[in-house]
Amino acid sequence: MARIEYQLDDVVLDSPTLIEGFPGVGLVGKIIVDHLIEQLGMEHYANVHCEGIPRVATYQPDSSELVTPVRLYVDSDRELIALQSDVPIKPNAATAFADCVTGWFKTEDVLPIYVSGLPRQPDEQAEPPALYGVGTGGGSEQLAAAGIDTPAEMGMVSGPTGALLSHALDNDTTAVGYIVESDPQFPDPDAAKAVLERGIEPIVDRDIDTSELTDKAAEIEQARKQLLKRMQQATEESSRAEPIRMYQ
C-alpha cells in the first residue's frame, strides 16, 4: 500500500523544498542528499512505501531498526526535506513511484528539486561543470530569478527523475530540475558541489558548506588514477594477440 510513514510527529512545515537523491550518472543526486543530511544534521522524517521500490530492507549504523530503502529527512528550521534512496528505481516502475510520492508533494505543498547527471566525455573536463535548469509550473521563473542557465541543446531526462518531472509536467505542478555535466563512470562530487552552490543555495536562500566535497573529489581522483594504473598493469602482464598489419 502506498503511503508515507512518519517517524516524527512534531514537525510543522510551511511549503518546504525537497531535494531528490536517486542514484544516477555520477551519483550526483545521492551525493548531494547524503551531504545535506550529514552537514545539516537532518532528522529521519519518514519512510516511503511506494510501488516501484525494490522489496528490500535497509539497516543503519548503530541501530537495530530496519528502515525502507527510500526515506525522507527533514531540517524544519530551513524548511528543507531530503529524499534519500539506497536503491535505484527501475525504469518500468518509475511511473508508479512518481504517482505515489507526487500526491504527497501536492498535499504538503512541497517544491521538489530533481537532479540528473549529463554524461561528460573524457575530453570535456570542464571546470566548473556546466549546470542547466529546467522547470514546470512556476519552476522556470524560480530558475530565472536564481540566474540558472537554460540548456545548451535538446535533451531528455529518463529514469525515476524523468518520471517525476514528467508527472509534474502532466499535472501542471511546479518543479525544478537541474542537469549537470557529470562523470559517467565514477562518483562525481565536483558536479554535486556545482549543483549545491550554484543551484540549490539560491533557491533555498541558505549557504551550504561544501568543503568536504572538495576533499572527496581529491580522494576519488586519486583512487581513479590507482584503478587506471592497475588496469594498465594487468593489460601489460596479460597474454594477448594483436593483428599485425602489412603497412603499419
From TrEMBL:
GO cellular component annotations of the record: proteasome complex
Positions with biased composition (Basic and acidic residues): 237-248
UniProt keyword DNA repair present: no
Annotated signal peptide: none
Keywords in alphabetical order: Proteasome
Region (Disordered): 228-248
Keyword Magnesium annotated: no
Pfam family, one: PAC2
SUPFAM superfamilies in the record: Cgl1923-like
InterPro entries: Proteasome_assmbl_chaperone_2, PSMG2_sf
Name this polypeptide is given: Proteasome assembly chaperone family protein
